[in-house]
Amino acid sequence: MSAAGIVVAGLRKRYGAVLALDGMSFSVRPGVVTGFVGPNGAGKSTTMRVILGLDAVDEGTALINGKPYRGLRRPLNHVGSLLDAAALHPGRTGRAHLLWLARSQGLAARRVDHVIELVGLASVARRRAGGYSLGMRQRLGIAAALLGDPSVVMLDEPFNGMDPDGIVWMRGFLRSLAAQGRAVLVSSHLMSEMQDTAGHLVVAGRGRAIADAAVADLIAAASGDRVAVRTPAVPHARSVLTYAGATVASTRENDGITVSGLPADRIVTLLGRSGVPFSEVSAHRATLEDAYLELTREAVEFRAVTPTEVSR
Ligand SMILES: Nc1ncnc2c1ncn2[C@@H]1O[C@H](COP(=O)(O)OP(=O)(O)OP(=O)(O)O)[C@@H](O)[C@H]1O
């Protein structure tokens, strides 16, 4: 396997009584946005801090481009990260903040204006960062992460505080970073953003990766093979489809059935060929949120009791 990107293997970390990481393992490949999701307390931020060498682990390894963070020569040319967008000097302008970072980290100052352009902050770069909105701080944090032109980018909750225009920009921006061949790890609680942005998803739960798969595969698995059919001739449709090997279930509507075992296009062909009228044949498509809720049902640290549980 190629060493490029991030590889974490068997991370274990205990804070007193809390086992924050319990065998966390996954890899983040170049060229793909990998979403890092999971309930509160699942261990996402701890994992990111461990990858950056900010936290020590009890067991396991975290490698960036094949080396632990501390073993990287010029680490900021390998990995750029944004863990906390609030961490900046409020009295400095955005540009001065980046210049200060570049100088103190030994990075080329000529990159500063380039990254300001990249994140769309040119018009406000000479304003004090203390007056920036959270969305602008996120952009400034991402500019800082890109100063060293790293091949690995790691962002904790970058959609936080972004307005709708900012969210659209962020989705495209993350995808473009991956398209340039970078390995991109992005944590988020927003499944709709992950569905549109990430190609791959690592789902954390109770300190380990409980799923590690392509977003398309997770959605396909949660969608099942159910197809909804609406027809005024339910008995006829039922016999045609059952004969072809499908399993047919009734729905609450008189003119509806749910079919499994046959793809939607085959159902359309079979019904058409047999002269069965129908007004709708649609494959059920789950959202990433459906898939996520199913996967994490057992791993949620704090869960509200439902009204039926209260009344018991
Ligand atoms: N410095 C610390 N001291 C004590 N416990 C900690 C510390 N950092 C994290 N933890 C605990 O470790 C567990 C994992 O926390 P972590 O912040 O990594 O989760 P997370 O997945 O990032 O959560 P969130 O989605 O809320 O950001 C939690 O139970 C948390 O309370």
Automatic annotation (TrEMBL):
**Member of which family?**
Belongs to the ABC transporter superfamily.
**Organism phylogeny:** Bacteria, Bacillati, Actinomycetota, Actinomycetes, Streptosporangiales
Q: Which UniProt keywords apply?
A: ATP-binding, Nucleotide-binding, Transport
User: Which Pfam families does UniProt cross-reference here?
Assistant: ABC_tran
Report TM segments.
none
Q: What is this protein called?
A: ATP-binding cassette domain-containing protein
Protein species of origin: Actinomadura soli
**Which ranges carry the ABC transporter domain?**
6-231
User: Which Gene Ontology terms cover its molecular function?
Assistant: ATP binding; ATP hydrolysis activity
